[in-house]
């Protein structure tokens, strides 16, 4: 227990744990007349750093006693946030009640929004809808920002409660919703698959003179695209209504077309996005690359990536891996190695998945020595072998009669603490059976060693 000397009794506070060390340091500095009094932003950070509601309150009260220091909306907001985090809502209300007398101001919008979100996290929905009444206690009219924060909490809990709140509490009190209001409602409707109500909401917005923005449209587009080809068709028609489609719009539709393997329309939308100056995100581009490779159109996939890069888009390791896998499945592993070198030159580091794809490709192409080279290169560049690496290489070697090489890789695998799985053992056993003539010409010690290794595991 540490007591501040009586000469600074106005700063007196008891520290019961190491958690208060930072607060003690602040106090110690403030005791010195040469050190400036901390500002509200510093006190806010100090309150937020506390590990319990009591410590936050203690810090707040300590700051109240500092000479020439006055609490602000930001320090009260920090305290309210900590109290809500620990579900001390009654105490938070008491803190709000003292604000007008202590700082001469009622709580601001941000403080009430903090209360709303805290109640939402605690799923205290009945209390959330009472926040406008709490605001009115301070002779202040609830703002649209507060209403929207309440609505945002309600749609995550129950869309019907949210719609009821909008009609009774907002429209009933003459509160006109803005774009954010309608965006929240659209999100709630689409999350609950109420597509028809989503279309009605669009019409309501237009009647009220509010032009739906891209966020509102994209929310409905995304919901439509979850309903297969018919939904995607409706989404495409809806997109034509949009004044300002954005990159997210194209991400949604291209992804939907790829999911239904409609490559032609996916490429049409990709081209349209480029024409309008948009570059789809790397996740969407990767899906286009995959479907092109699956359709044996690997070179077109390469062209897509090149165009994306020229337009300033991002290409990551997942996109490159998808391209490499596509070429390897087409038994073009030698061509795929080019992309490995290319990604390294561009600072995009390959990973185990990259090399596993190449090992698979060389094994499938009947080039086991190149597969072994990739295996060795992994060690050289510091990439750890994993189960897929071992299983791919051992299976590939055994499938073409390179049983002894496969056995050596299995030894390395076991030495590294990895246990071969059922399918790998199956592959080895089938290879042994298939190569019975080869085994007849071998020293049985090799077979004994292999069987011993199997029994040990």
From TrEMBL:
<feature type="repeat" description="PPR">
    <location>
        <begin position="351"/>
        <end position="385"/>
    </location>
</feature>
<dbReference type="InterPro" id="IPR050872">
    <property type="entry name" value="PPR_P_subfamily"/>
</dbReference>
<feature type="repeat" description="PPR">
    <location>
        <begin position="246"/>
        <end position="280"/>
    </location>
</feature>
<feature type="repeat" description="PPR">
    <location>
        <begin position="213"/>
        <end position="245"/>
    </location>
</feature>
<dbReference type="InterPro" id="IPR011990">
    <property type="entry name" value="TPR-like_helical_dom_sf"/>
</dbReference>
<protein>
    <recommendedName>
        <fullName>Pentatricopeptide repeat-containing protein</fullName>
    </recommendedName>
</protein>
<dbReference type="Pfam" id="PF12854">
    <property type="entry name" value="PPR_1"/>
</dbReference>
<dbReference type="Pfam" id="PF01535">
    <property type="entry name" value="PPR"/>
</dbReference>
<feature type="repeat" description="PPR">
    <location>
        <begin position="178"/>
        <end position="212"/>
    </location>
</feature>
<comment type="similarity">
    <text>Belongs to the PPR family. P subfamily.</text>
</comment>
<keyword id="KW-0677">Repeat</keyword>
<dbReference type="Pfam" id="PF13041">
    <property type="entry name" value="PPR_2"/>
</dbReference>
<dbReference type="InterPro" id="IPR002885">
    <property type="entry name" value="PPR_rpt"/>
</dbReference>
<feature type="repeat" description="PPR">
    <location>
        <begin position="386"/>
        <end position="420"/>
    </location>
</feature>
<feature type="repeat" description="PPR">
    <location>
        <begin position="316"/>
        <end position="350"/>
    </location>
</feature>
